[in-house]
């Protein structure tokens, strides 16, 4: 079978946190920062071989901390991946899946009715009991209706958006996505928070950076342990960057966005050092899924040698860049073509295929690009299949699926009138409610 998949960011992070919490009580609680990028690929970092020199700060972070070359997300789509990260549970358990189609892949567009279940326990809810103050900056994506928003799920502060920055929309049929400051919207993307469709210019990453830096400073002054969940979405199409970074990379607008995010990571790490809290702050950097190759050459990143990308369960969709940094604790140095140009007969099919009875098995040690599935007629295939079948059966014995939250859609539940819209005069009239089963072609 080759290299076994080593689990998700959620499992690793919760394991590290559990180890830390068993230390003697006289040791101060560590601050925690999770930086989760949007659609950034394994091959986008210089430390993994990207030749464009766009990530000097991330490369330095890796040299000072622990680099994970075979790190996996729980799902190759934004919402279920983030739900897994914040709950420590697979999407099939936390409800971030659909039963409308065999593949179960789904996410949270504006018309989705559901969101993260109240039965799930999120990381900030655990940390709150230990005296932490938690803030999310950027993209939430676990449900946009009021009962699902971050301040209802353990976060104390929020600056960002419930959805991705798709748009702009004609508000007669679909509202632009709101931006929140805590529990109320303060504007919308493409309106108060501008993104230039033509040039890709936007100051959003700089706004998110400043929000993060200010939060760190405030909690340091208060001597309060904090959890910062920093989730910018500049590398998700339509890709954007601020004026200072536009045109600076060798990879078009996507590379510009990567350069700005790398700069921001560098600023956050430097700020921790300046404030003298770097040795008491655990920082984890990763992405929610692989690069979205279907977004085109100037709007998508690199998954290195790995097959395909976002929305697929091949290596390019599931293997993510990941770095852990904690000076003094972590030793240094440690229907859509989703696969353009990567056609593998019988593997990269563009319709959903049922592989349950005869799964594709690939030896990642010999074939990291997943080009040559092991023959079903071979002894090796039968040996591996028998081992995997036992593991699957054991998993299914104890599996209690969560209630699927991503089955139903309804235009009436979109962001027509978010909290705070009255004060801004930005409320829009919703259409009549007409729920339907969401269509998930991924």
TrEMBL record:
This is N-acetylgalactosamine-6-sulfatase. InterPro entries: Alkaline_phosphatase_core_sf (IPR017850), Sulfatase (IPR050738), Sulfatase_CS (IPR024607), Sulfatase_N (IPR000917). Belongs to the sulfatase family. Residues 30-355 form the Sulfatase N-terminal domain. Residues 1-24 form the signal peptide. Keywords: Calcium, Disulfide bond, Glycoprotein, Hydrolase, Lysosome, Metal-binding, Signal. Coiled coil: none annotated. PANTHER family: ARYLSULFATASE FAMILY MEMBER, N-ACETYLGALACTOSAMINE-6-SULFATASE. GO terms for cellular component: lysosome.
């Amino acid at each position: 079978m080759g290299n076994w998949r080593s689990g998700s960011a959620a499992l690793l992070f919760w394991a590290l946190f559990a180890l830390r919490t068993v230390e003697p009580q006289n040791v101060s609680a560590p601050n925690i920062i999770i930086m989760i990028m949007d659609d950034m690929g394994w091959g986008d970092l210089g430390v993994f071989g990207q030749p464009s020199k766009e990530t000097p700060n991330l490369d330095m972070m890796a040299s000072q901390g622990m680099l994970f070359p075979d790190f996996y997300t729980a799902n190759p789509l934004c919402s279920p991946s983030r739900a897994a990260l914040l709950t420590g549970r697979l999407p099939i358990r936390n409800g971030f899946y659909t039963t409308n189609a065999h593949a179960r892949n789904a996410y949270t567009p504006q018309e989705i009715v559901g969101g993260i279940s109240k039965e799930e326990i999120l990381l900030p809810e655990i940390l709150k009991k230990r005296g932490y103050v938690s803030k999310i900056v950027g993209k939430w994506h676990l449900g946009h209706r009021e009962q699902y928003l971050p301040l209802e799920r353990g976060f104390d502060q929020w600056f960002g958006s419930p959805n991705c920055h798709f748009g702009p929309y004609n508000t007669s049929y679909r509202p632009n996505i709101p931006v929140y400051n805590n529990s109320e919207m303060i504007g919308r993307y493409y309106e108060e928070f501008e993104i230039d469709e033509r040039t890709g210019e936007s100051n959003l990453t700089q706004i998110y950076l400043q929000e993060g830096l200010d939060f760190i400073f405030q909690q340091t002054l208060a001597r309060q342990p904090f959890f910062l969940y920093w989730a910018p979405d500049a590398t998700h199409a339509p890709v954007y960057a601020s004026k200072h970074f536009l045109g600076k990379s060798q990879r078009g607008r996507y590379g510009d966005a990567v350069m700005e995010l790398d700069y921001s990571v560098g600023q956050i790490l430097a700020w921790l050092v300046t404030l003298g809290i770097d040795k008491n702050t655990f920082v984890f950097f990763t992405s929610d899924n692989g690069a979205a190759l279907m977004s085109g050459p100037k709007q998508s990143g690199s998954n290195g040698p790995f097959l395909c990308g976002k929305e697929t369960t091949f290596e390019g969709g599931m293997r993510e860049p990941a770095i852990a940094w904690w000076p003094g604790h972590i030793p240094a140095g440690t229907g859509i073509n989703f696969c353009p140009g990567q056609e593998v007969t019988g593997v990269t099919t563009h319709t959903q295929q049922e592989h349950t009875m005869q799964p594709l098995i690939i030896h990642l040690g010999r074939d990291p690009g997943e080009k040559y599935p092991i023959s079903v007629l071979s002894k090796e295939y039968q040996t591996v299949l028998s081992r995997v079948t036992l593991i699957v059966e054991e998993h299914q014995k104890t599996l209690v699926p969560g209630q699927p939250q991503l089955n139903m859609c309804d235009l009436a539940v979109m962001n027509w009138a978010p909290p705070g819209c009255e004060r801004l005069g930005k409320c829009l009239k919703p259409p009549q409610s007409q729920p339907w089963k969401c269509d998930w072609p991924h």
